[in-house]
Design a protein that fits this description.
four-stranded antiparallel beta sheet, Prohead serine protease domain-containing protein, about 210 residues, seven-stranded mixed beta sheet, about 35% helix
Length: about 210
């Protein structure tokens, strides 16, 4: 699980009760909003980043704890959707210790945030700005969580991703440099052959002119 990143939306979490059904509603992610990740880089989510993940088997957790499951897409107790804001989450809270505690804590305002755990499938980096800009275009979604500390962010994996991008850019530069050197060497060889042929031709022509004069 060490390669899973976590981010939060910070838009709040609401309770909605309908007869005996208790549902938490909120956003786990917001599109196009810049987030400063530990002063290492900026980051934003592109609309559609979750489109491939909505049909997956995703859990709803409390504080990212895999032992505290309060919903699941496969069972229909967790519903995920994308809209113009971001990743919208609805959790039908269970009648369990974790579920009852979570309902009470959200109702009181003690827990008011949502977050999500993910792996990046597609991203782009822009180092023409400072700090660098990371745009996440596609994610593999693992879980959404009701969290007491929605500002929590994991920088380690994002920094590794930036370092990998830079290493790849350096490799690409080295490849282009080698290609340029190979092209230059080939052009030199062609030029040398052409010069040798011209010199040989001039030598033959000089001999012919000399024979004609005699």
């Amino acid at each position: 699980m060490i390669d899973i990143e976590r981010r939060s939306a910070g838009l709040g979490l609401e309770v909605r009760a309908d007869n005996d059904k208790r549902t938490l509603v909120g956003y786990a992610a917001v599109f196009e909003r810049l987030t400063n990740i530990g002063s290492y880089f900026q980051e934003k989510l592109s609309p559609g980043a979750f489109s491939d993940a909505l049909d997956g088997d995703v859990r709803a957790l409390v504080d990212h704890d895999p032992g505290r499951v309060v919903g699941r897409t496969k069972s229909g107790t967790l519903r995920l959707s994308e809209d113009g804001v971001g990743l919208r989450v609805e959790i039908d809270v269970p009648n369990t210790s974790d579920g009852n505690d979570l309902w009470e804590l959200v109702s009181r305002g003690d827990i008011s945030g949502m977050s999500f755990g993910f792996r990046v499938k597609k991203e782009t980096w822009d180092e023409t700005v400072s700090p660098p800009m990371r745009t996440i275009e596609k994610v593999e979604l693992h879980e959404v969580s009701a969290v007491a500390w929605p500002a929590y962010e994991d920088t380690t994996i994002g920094v590794r991703s930036l370092e990998a991008f830079r290493a790849g850019a350096e490799d690409a530069t080295a490849v282009e440099q080698r290609k340029a050197e190979n092209r230059a060497a080939a052009e030199r060889r062609i030029a040398e052959k052409r010069a040798a042929m011209e010199q040989k031709f001039r030598g033959i022509q000089s001999q012919s002119d000399g024979q004609g004069a005699s």
